[in-house]
Amino acid sequence: MADDSTTTIRATFETREAADLAVEHLVQQHGISRPDIFIQSATDRNSAGSAPSGGDVSHEEGARRDVPLAGEIEVSVDIASSQVTAVERSLGDAGALSVSSR
Question: Which stretches does UniProt call biased (Basic and acidic residues) (predicted)?
Fold first, then answer.
């Protein structure tokens, strides 16, 4: 009998750029549909991450000051239990600070 139970995976990232990369890994490498992936602040504050990156940084002016850097970004997804190990590895490869499942 196949195990068809689902597991919620949560990963935190320092930057929105790293979270977006993780989403691309989930979609392209694991065939997870984008509407099944959730991105939000890991805290109760609005945040673009805890460090500037990508569009948050200007070569002329440095880090933008209009973007709140008030905490990490969380990516979560419900997956088949059989995918847990591979998805956790992909999230780590994308730069996750921490990965947990329940």
Answer: 57-67
